[in-house]
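pipeline: protein-struct stage 2 | run 1193 | Ribosome biogenesis protein Nop10
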Amino acid sequence: MRSLLRRCTKCGAYTLSKEKCPRCGGPVKVPHPPKYSPEDKYQRYRILQKLSTGALPVREETKERILKDLLGGP
Ligand SMILES: [Zn+2]
C-alpha cells in the first residue's frame, strides 16, 4: 500500500492526498526509500547474529544461502 502514501516536497508531511499537501498546499510525490538505509544494515547484523547463535531455525543449506546473500559472496 506504499503507493497510496504521498509526501509533500515542501514541508515533508505524509498524506494520502494525490494532488497537494493538506498542510501547506505544496506538491506531493511518492516517497521512495533509499536503496541502502541504515535500518537495512542493522537488520543484516541482526540476522547474522541470529544465524550464528542458532536463534534462527533454518537448515544448513538455507543458512549458507542467507549468509552468502548478506555478505555478498560470489
Ligand atoms: Zn506540505
